[in-house]
Prior knowledge:
Layout (H helix, E strand, L loop, with lengths): L8 E11 L5 E11 L3 H12 L5 H8 E5 L13 H22 L9
Helix pairs in contact: 2-3
Amino acid sequence: MFKVTQSPTFWATVKAEVRDENGKQLEVSWRQQFKRLPVSEVQSMTEVIQENKQHDADFLVQVTTDWKEVGDDDGNALSYSEDELRKLVDAGFSRAMLDAFYGGYPKAKLKN
């Protein structure tokens, strides 16, 4: 049975590709927890970004609540913080995080 009421947050897997020091393409991934916002609010926030009135990092800070499987240079677990999130954005991972966020929202299926 479909339940209309959903949890206030959801977990999604963020996937990205990076190159190592030898030029080899690697897939990296981690789990990120996002706030589940009303679609109307997501649309408004997205419009603000598209109009270049807000940076991706600011949007992601507003919607991210936690993460798992993110480590520092020594392989130690890295706790979620706004500063660490902004570092990931600066390293080029904003598109992957946004894709994971938007992927958590339902998509209607069309019949042919």
